[in-house]
Amino acid sequence: MRKKHRRLFIALFFFTPFVVDLDAVTVLTTGGRSFERVTVEKETETEIEIVDKDGVVYRIRKDRIKQITPDAKEGPAEFTTDESVPTGAVKKDSPAESLPEHSFLLSQSVSNDGAFQGVDLFGERQARRNGTKYKDFYQAYFMTTSVDLLGLPKQFKLGLTVMDPLVDRSNTDADNRFQSTPGGPDQSYLINQSLATGTLQYDPNQVKTRKEKNGLFDYLFTRAMYEHETKMGAFSAGFLFINANDPIYVMRGYWVIGWRPPFLQWLNPQFSANNKMLNDYGGVFQGTHNYRLSLSHEFFKGETFRITPSLVIGYADVNDNIDRKKGFSDVSPRLQFDYGKFFFALNAMYRATPALVDNELYTPSAGVYPDTNPNDGKTTDPSKVYGYKNQFIVNYLSSISPNEFVRRGLIEHYQQQHIVHFIFFYNIGYTIRI
Fold it and tell me: Could you tell me the residue ranges of all domains in the chain?
């Protein structure tokens, strides 16, 4: 390389702007990671944004870049068979080369629990199923599979996520009652009468312990977003649909709008609003809103080993159309470690306003007395409701109560617990392209 050309290349690399006029470049980071056949789309004082052939966007800090080199240019264009065509020299069609190198970005992970906008997705349902106390760490293991479509124009994002429980998928009898229908009135007294009289007073084919609809079910999240960049930042809009294989859950649909401001890029701030629009649960949640603020920063960008702390804060404008409560639905910190294609993440969800889930829709009440106080931050403890031990304690409390007011207070004190504020869970998995 001539000295003049060498000095020009060194100036292009070490001084801003970076080599933004090249059609295709190879970026080599100080950690040895290489991004080949990428284009530089955007740069700031501290970062550059590159896009690969699949349309995947990467942001890399400039101090982590070791070298940027132009890719070898293609040879001269081939002529068509008819050289008299007035279009001039054109290259023969190569449909295979026009396709992205990969079709999907696949990510799979295993976790012990999951959360969405302040709602526990698996652990609390598992507690009700197994008759155990609500707690902050569950073993409701499930596998998450996320697929994002590659090769789309940069503005379009399309993907889906499936959550498949690995435990407690089957239904079971959680209330230990003899019933003629699942969830029907307790007819255990017929058993006692038959034992006392020696005469069968019920149909054993009808009155028996029955399984409830309480198996952990699969979730399907479908998302489609469009993003448009302006001098005021990047604006996005799209849809998020959530399906579950439980007939009473139906589907939740959200109209999502977002904004990523052009400042504080080190923290990667993003604002979004999830606006409920579908009419499930008889329209209880229709028209509710959840405003989200997320902050994150990836340390050691471009390196094989990376650390990304993040924080998401959610505020529910109206959490349902019956209680119409407002407040912070969740404060969710996350710490993720990446090594190549593998990752491990520690997560927490803090319910800053537990009253948002203090109702029958989120934490069903099955105690002797219904939970009629939606503002005390308490709910029925699933482990204190069913079984002979609990029935004995309830009968004892009723026998020593001088009146109904005292009886209710004693039984509620025994059967209720505080709604769990913190819920912890982890993810371990990998991400590849196919």
Answer: 7-70, 104-172+213-363+420-433, 366-418
Q: What pLDDT sits at residue 279?
A: 65
The pair of three-digit structure tokens given for residue 172, joined into one six-digit string:
């079971």
DSSP 284-296: TSTT-EEEEEEEE
Q: According to the model, what pLDDT value does residue 280 have?
A: 67
Q: What's the alpha-carbon Rg for the chain, to the nearest Å?
A: 29
Residue ranges in the chain modelled with pLDDT below 70 = 1-23, 72-98, 246-250, 279-284
Instruction: Output the pLDDT for position 10.
Output: 38
- Which residues are bridge partners to 431 per DSSP? 107
| Phi, psi (rounded to 5 degrees) for 50 | -120, 155
Asked whether the whole model's pTM tops 0.85, one would answer: no
Q: What are phi and psi of 127, to 5 degrees?
A: -65, -45
Q: Alpha-carbon distance 384 to 409, whole Å?
A: 15
The beta strand positions in 298-421, using DSSP E, are: 305-318, 327-339, 342-350, 378-380, 416-418
Instruction: Confirm or reject CATH 2.40.230.20 for domain 104-172+213-363+420-433, answering yes or no.
Output: yes
**Which are the contacts of 146, defined by CB distance < 8 A and separation ≥ 6?**
105, 106, 107, 108, 159, 160, 161, 162
Tell me: domain 7-70, CATH 2.30.30.100, correct?
Answer: yes
> What is the C-alpha to C-alpha distance for residues 81 and 248, in angstroms, rounded to an integer?
65
Q: Is residue 429 within 8 Å of residue 342, measured between CB atoms?
A: yes
Instruction: Please return the burial class of 241, using the count of CB atoms within 10 Å of its CB with bins 0-12, 13-18 and 19+.
Output: middle
Query: C-alpha angle 139/141/147, rounded to 5°?
Result: 150
Which pLDDT belongs to residue 5? 42
Taking only the tens place, the pLDDT of each residue in 29-58 is 887 788 888 888 888 888 888 888 777 888
Contact yes or no for 286/276 (Cβ under 8 A): yes
What pLDDT is attached to residue 407?
Answer: 93
Q: What's the half-sphere exposure (Cβ side, CA atoms, 13 Å) at 30?
A: 9
pLDDT at residue number 126: 96
The dihedral through the CA atoms of 295, 104, 32, 335 has a sign that is: positive
